[in-house]
Specification:
By secondary structure, this protein is α/β, with parallel strands linked by helices. The protein contains 9 helices and 14 strands. The protein folds into 2 domains: 115 residues, Alpha-Beta Complex (Aspartate Aminotransferase, domain 1), CATH 3.90.1150.10; 236 residues, 3-Layer(aba) Sandwich (Aspartate Aminotransferase, domain 2), CATH 3.40.640. Strand 6 and strand 7 form a beta hairpin. The structure holds pyridoxal-5'-phosphate.
């Protein structure tokens, strides 16, 4: 079979999600659609019970464990329904009706998790940055001592803020890490649950990674439908029903790539360098301002506005002409957002920085 070729750099992809994947992963994924490991079958048509797929799933799970240094306390699951399903599934499995869960409100996604958790128990929003359109991360709040867990959103994709430190508390954490999972090392032991839709920093849409602490399960008394119980998916190794095999395969390729790069310490250092490159220009260039508080700036999604909004469309055109796509800000923030996930090469960040410099020179 002919090897498929993919153009080297198609576009500099700054979309927030679905988002850029490593070029090597795209090539391997394309190849496996044509023919998986010379098997004469496509990844799209093999059984989820086949030895080929079972080994893909096992490799994906063990790479997650290795990269995040996860021991036997936690189980790695590949689920469906997006991070949005985890908003209710987390509360359904971890919160009894009479119990209280604490939430930090850092934006639209936190809000959705709060709304769904309220269906299952008491919810206390212990801090919110709504007063400033979520342009910062609240710190120094009190958490009720009886809280079953504290729910956080570690990276706020829309506003470009990120928690650079985990909250100082002994209360178990539950976290939506959809847009910064695998961007840095992490102490998984502090979490009852970590969940992340794959399509920001891990793979294509279609699967959701869940990392569940096993000894915290089975503590709610309600009846939970079989598909919505973490125990079901643990027992059946993420294959209770047909799993999204292709999405899991592509996640596995990305996890291999992360390991080849040297693991999450190396990845975190690269991410810091890329973010510094972009934020330095945002701060240097008199035409632009960062949208998020400096100390809370996201290393994954850089949000910025033009000091003169009338120049926005001219800058957008110049960025598009330089093959930079997906830079439009979310409607609730406006301006621009450059998502620079793990797979974004530093060279592409340099391209947008050069466009900003050039635009500055032209307008200056
Ligand atoms: C994109 C995103 C979601 C929604 O994920 P789905 O998989 O589409 O449900 C939730 N939380 C955060 C932080 C996100 O960035």
């Amino acid at each position: 079979m002919e090897t498929l070729s993919v153009k080297k750099i198609k576009k500099h992809n700054f979309f927030a999600g679905p988002a850029i994947l490593p070029q090597q992963v795209i090539q391997q994924a394309a190849q496996a659609v044509a023919d998986l490991n010379g098997s004469g079958l496509s990844i799209l048509e093999i059984s989820h019970r086949s030895a080929d797929f079972v080994s893909i799933l096992e490799e994906a799970k063990s790479l997650v464990k290795e990269l995040l240094n996860i021991g036997d306390s936690h189980e790695v699951l590949f689920l469906t329904g997006g991070a949005s399903s985890q908003f209710y599934m987390s509360a359904m499995n971890f919160l009894n009706e009479h119990e209280t869960a604490a939430f930090v409100d850092t934006g639209a996604w936190s809000n959705k998790s709060i709304k769904e958790a309220k269906l299952f128990g008491n919810v206390e929003t212990v801090a919110s940055s709504k007063d400033k359109n979520y342009n910062y991360v609240p710190k120094g709040y009190d958490i009720p001592v009886n809280a079953k867990y504290l729910h956080i959103t570690t990276n706020n994709t829309i506003y470009g803020t990120q928690l650079h430190e985990l909250p100082k508390t002994d209360i178990p954490l539950i976290a939506d890490m959809s847009s910064d999972i695998f961007s840095r090392p992490l102490d998984v032991n502090r979490f009852s649950l970590i969940y992340a839709g794959a399509q920001k920093n891990l793979g294509p849409a279609g699967t959701t990674l869940a990392i569940v602490r096993k000894d915290r399960l089975g503590t709610v008394t309600r009846t939970i439908p079989t598909m919505l119980k973490y125990e079901t998916h643990i027992e059946k190794n993420s294959s209770f029903n047909t799993p999204p095999a292709y999405a899991i395969f592509v996640c596995m390729l990305t996890l291999r790539w992360l390991k080849e790069m040297g693991g999450l310490e190396v990845v975190a250092k690269r991410n810091q360098e890329k973010a510094d490159l972009l934020y330095n220009e945002i701060d240097r260039n008199p035409l632009f301002s960062g949208a998020a508080a400096k100390e809370d700036r996201s290393l994954m999604n850089a949000t910025f506005v033009m000091n003169n909004p009338e120049l926005e469309s001219a800058f957008a055109e110049m960025a598009a002409a330089a093959n930079c796509v997906g830079t439009k800000g979310h409607r609730s923030v406006g301006g621009f957002r450059a998502s620079i996930y793990n797979a974004m090469p530093k060279e592409s960040v340099q391209v947008i920085v050069d466009v900003m410099k050039e635009f500055g020179a032209k307008m200056g």
